[in-house]
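re: that chain from earlier
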Amino acid sequence: MKKILVTALACLMAGTASAKTLTIGIDLSGSNLLLSHANFAHGAATHVQAAINALKPGDVVQLKTFGARHSALNLRQHRVTISRHNRAAKVAGQVAQFIRTLPEQTKTGQSSTNLIAWLEFTSDFDCHQDGQVLVITDGLESSSYVDGKDLLSGKKALPAPDVNLKGCALTFYGLGAGWPPKEVKRVRKAWQAWADQAGAAFTAIIP
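^ sequence. v structure.
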């Protein structure tokens, strides 16, 4: 019995040590097609659903929103641990449904996009445990750091990151959606450089 207990505890500790966090960030700014186009929302929901379905028991899913720094909506967050009660498929379906209904729920988007601030101020990405950060965003930073138009035209670059994201996988789903190719490439290059400096492995998924 003692041997069985020791083995069970060892397995539990191993599972806890390897557990990882998937953070899903949703851009509620007005430029993001997620808020205005049902087809884009459906594609984003499908991608997020697949990412959650790949998780194992003990892994954590957290859902956060961002946009304007002054919006109280962005103070809300949801966090759930994958378990027998909260199976990955169940959580994936709930989150996907929420994303699909955003165009119906949101009449107007928020006035600015503080994506950099969100990435720098969020403290629970769990990068030391290979955390994943999946952001549904067009990637257009429009804040006190840089004007969105200047970023699109290449007049200004993103500021150097003031955060260490080493160990995290950072994915932007929807970067440049609906933009001309040159602007997509400029913004993708800017975020690649930012992520490299922050230590994150960056992937841009362009619909």
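The longest strand covers residues 21-27.
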